[in-house]
Design brief:
Elements lengths: L8 E4 L8 H11 L7 E4 L2 H10 L4 H11 L15 H18 L2 E3 L2 H10 L12 E7 L4 E5 L4 H8 L4 E3 L2 E3 L2 E5 L8 H6 L5 E5 L14 H16 L8 E6 L10 H13 L2 H7 L11 E6 L7
Length: 302
């Protein structure tokens, strides 16, 4: 890794569609004139955004692509994700049961991988503009896998393979699923790489919920994962500064791209003084990890 006057690492959490706020954070950090990170670490959606950024895709271009061109259903093979209304729900239930009885996931992820290969420019880890790492869980060994070589797109595809929705990514004798299941804020990867200055961006907020919040299987699955991760959170390596970027939407709210991105931008702008302190040379006097952020309501989506 290149030497930097004030070396720091950026860690991006998973969070489904809520992770699109990472784009806004990156965009606002650049606009504020802060130095680029010397390492980017991400998991799940954080791996997607972080990987594209490390490969050289400007945050402004990411925002334009997501808002103007990206439609998540265009890159999913199963029509279960494309049906709406009461009739659609009946077909969805039937297709889910049929698919999961014969396949390890609702979607193979082939189209998503093709998209990632194109956006990453087919780059390997040793070709990125900024060093990049992401994680995944190997179902065979039960261990975390940290990617640092090979295809960036394939590593991202492994890191975002949320069980049931995407088939596990089989690679080099491993059966890989979403890295967020083991560590949804992989600060430990940056620490082990030698970074003393770590900024984390968390797009998740754990709150109490009502029975009415669990209307379908996906909501139950995501809530179950949230509960497990929340219970394990205290055991994780803390970042020096954590920027919380949260809202009241679900991980499936891909139709609110613009709102998520703007939320990330506001989080940076409203915490500029804290971030300026983070980037000062005397940052080492920062004794305790700090948390700042923004909570907003950008509309519920059931």
């Amino acid at each position: 890794m290149k030497k930097h006057k004030y070396p720091w690492a950026l860690v991006l959490s998973g969070g489904g569609a809520k992770g699109l706020a990472h784009i806004g954070v990156l965009k606002a950090i650049e606009e504020a004139g802060f130095p680029r990170p010397c390492l980017v670490v991400g998991t799940s959606m954080g791996a997607i955004i972080g990987g594209l950024y490390a490969c050289g895709m400007p945050p402004k271009e990411m925002a334009r692509f997501v808002v103007e061109e990206f439609n998540v259903t265009d890159y999913l093979e199963s029509f279960v994700f494309k049906l709406h209304g009461p009739v659609g729900k009946v077909f969805q239930t039937g297709q889910i049961l049929a698919s999961l009885s014969t396949r390890p996931g609702l979607d193979t992820g082939h189209r998503v991988l093709e998209l990632l290969e194109g956006l990453c420019g087919g780059k390997n880890f040793d070709e990125t503009e900024i060093p990049f790492r992401c994680n995944a869980l190997d179902l065979l060994s039960g261990r975390e896998v940290v990617f640092s070589s090979g295809s960036v797109a394939r590593a991202i595809r492994a890191s975002m393979s949320f069980p049931v929705f995407f088939e596990p990514f089989v690679d080099n004798g491993m059966c890989l699923v979403d890295g967020g299941l083991l560590d949804n804020m992989p600060v430990a990867i940056a620490r082990k790489a030698g970074f003393k200055r770590v900024l984390a961006v968390d797009v998740n907020r754990f709150t109490l919920q009502d029975l009415t919040d669990f209307k379908n299987g996906p909501q139950v699955i995501f809530r179950s994962v949230e509960c497990v991760l929340n219970a394990l959170e205290e055991r994780k390596f803390p970042a020096d500064l954590t920027l919380n970027v949260t809202d009241d939407t679900t991980p499936f709210s891909f139709f609110k791209q613009k709102e998520h991105i703007e939320l990330g931008q506001r989080a940076v702008r409203e915490n500029l003084r804290t971030l300026e302190h983070f980037f000062r040379p005397q940052f080492e006097h920062f004794v305790k990890p700090r948390v700042c952020g923004i909570e907003a309501v950008i509309g519920t989506d059931g």
